[in-house]
Amino acid sequence: MSIVLFGKNGQLGRHISKNLDHRENFYSFDSSEVNFHNLNEIESCLLKYKPKLIINAAAYTKVDLAEEEIETAFKINTDAVAKIARLSKEIDACLVHYSTDYVFDGKKNDPYNELDQTGPLGIYGKSKILGEKKILDSECEYYIFRTSWVISEFGDNFLLKMLDLFKKNSPLKIIDDQYGVPTDAKFLADNSLKLVNNVETRNNIINLVPSGSTSWYNLAVYLYKKVKNFSKDSKLSRDNILPISSVDYKTLAKRPRNSILSNEKFKSLIKEAVPSWETNVDNVLNRIYKNF
Ligand SMILES: NC(=O)c1ccc[n+]([C@@H]2O[C@H](COP(=O)([O-])OP(=O)(O)OC[C@H]3O[C@@H](n4cnc5c(N)ncnc54)[C@H](OP(=O)(O)O)[C@@H]3O)[C@@H](O)[C@H]2O)c1
Q: Considering its fold, how many domains does the chain have in total?
């Protein structure tokens, strides 16, 4: 069975590649090989390889910049996804796609499940929910995995930013009133592929996150405590990590106060114990510091 992966160099794409690189008929692409700005490139690629499985790990993920690069965000997260979904239907492929906690407005007091009303606050979330809708409209076979706060040893993410900032002793003001679930890109890759192997779980939107939840501030403190024991680079004093409220920390994009995703459906489908977000963070640190 032939498999095509888009976005092979992203946080998630790299971990999916690690799982599938050994397989025959696995073809993976970065943006220099198949660029979503040019929908014809998507079409040529899919008609050439005629995969049975299309994994879309590519996305426009710059939440703040999306407020300015509106057209680009919709092109990559909506138009390109619509094209992939139409072609999936045409060539009878199953489309594996990833979406975000930022499709919600954050006003709910409990974790969001898959049936909850969406209502994105920013352009990124709007472009992603429209992408989801295009998949459903296309009537192709699909999986949509919604996830949140993706962290890994690669790319641009909160964990790597913190490790860098811990090397300086300047005050760090971290938002304490936004809640979510930090998710290791490897956990996301491994578990989405496990579910994809079971045809019975197809045509579902599934929240794919570890268990528990935290705020950005508590995540920073958790990381600090873990890292200070073994990293000589860490110069920051604990007193210099300060909680700050969203209203005092202006960003271009509005973010949901609560973007905690419930993983109850995922747990019932995977039929295995699901680790906590703390274990996800430890696993990323283990890969960075080689068994700290
Ligand atoms: N990061 C998060 O915190 C987060 C949270 C919730 C949901 N998600 C979702 O999870 C999925 C994976 O996210 P991630 O963190 O792995 O993303 P990422 O690290 O930002 O990677 C995204 C990839 O998309 C590719 N891409 C961007 N523009 C493209 C274009 N014009 N043509 C083709 N490819 C293009 C990039 O390819 P090149 O590197 O080759 O340019 C990049 O490697 C996405 O669907 C995202 O929306 C992420």
A: 1
